[in-house]
Amino acid sequence: MLKLLSFVSSHNFTPLSNFIGGIQFQSAFTPTNHFFHLARVFSSISHSHSKMEADSYMFGPYKIDKKEVFYSTDLSYALVNLRPLLPGHVLVCPRREAKRFADLTADETSDLWLTAQKVGKQLESYHKASSLTFAIQDGPQAGQTVPHVHIHIIPRKSGDFEKNDEIYDALDVKEKEMKQSLDLDKERKDRSIEEMAEEAAEYRKLL
User: Fold this and answer.
1) pLDDT number for residue 170
2) Is residue 184 classed exposed, middle or buried when 0-12, 13-18 and 19+ CB atoms within 10 A define those classes?
3) Class for domain 57-205, per CATH?
4) CB-based contacts of 120: which residues, under 8 Å, 6+ apart?
5) Which amino acids are annotated as binding site, given as ranges?
6) Nearest to 181 by CA among 164, 196, 161, 203
7) Annotated catalytic, 89?
8) CA-CA-CA-CA torsion for 127, 154, 193, 206, nearest 10 degrees?
9) Among residues 11, 47, 49, 150, which one is catalytic?
10) Which residues are annotated as a binding site for substrate?
11) pLDDT (tens digit, 0 to 9) for every residue of the chain, 207 residues total?
12) What is the pTM of this model?
């Protein structure tokens, strides 16, 4: 906006003229009017963008209550899990509905992993864990049930699984349960919106 103001103030504009059938018509264009018109447009866009950030979170075809979201950027957001595998098990998703990892733009890919890094670091400390599992199930044969790219972030502690690789089998089960819960609206059976909102509020304080 400052660049626009500088451009307007440094150029000597004259009213635009059109000639039709030899009659001269003066337009109502002036630098000041044009500047304030653009200012109103940018203000409107900014307001709409802020509203989108506050109210609109989609996970594939499913609408996510904003109370379940505890961190967001322009391109990504993090939400608590309907049925966490371990304490602190959360998801990080791109805002845009991208079905496969290869569908993400370079900016979305970078922002998604930077968000996951930031969220994971804080949750590992909060849950007094010693490690983190980051996992993406990219496509149906890989166990993905919701057609929207998402990273599972799971704080890990010694002994949480007898065999470490068992967590991936458990992730497959939880992914299927999550899809069933979203489809049949059974998620409130295990985790109420109040429980998830409370957890999200705690994580929000960390970021």
Assistant:
1) 85
2) exposed
3) alpha beta
4) 132, 134, 153, 155
5) 81, 137, 143-146, 152
6) 196
7) no
8) 50
9) 150
10) 81, 137, 143-146, 152
11) 444 444 444 444 444 444 334 444 444 544 445 444 444 544 444 443 433 454 669 999 999 999 999 999 999 999 999 889 999 999 999 999 999 999 999 999 999 999 999 999 999 999 999 999 999 999 999 999 999 999 999 999 999 988 887 888 888 777 776 666 655 554 445 688 899 999 999 999 999
12) 0.68
Q: Kindly list the domain boundaries of the chain, sorted by start residue.
A: 57-205
Closest CA to 111 of 71, 70, 73, 54: 73
Show the tokens assigned to 29: 């264009």
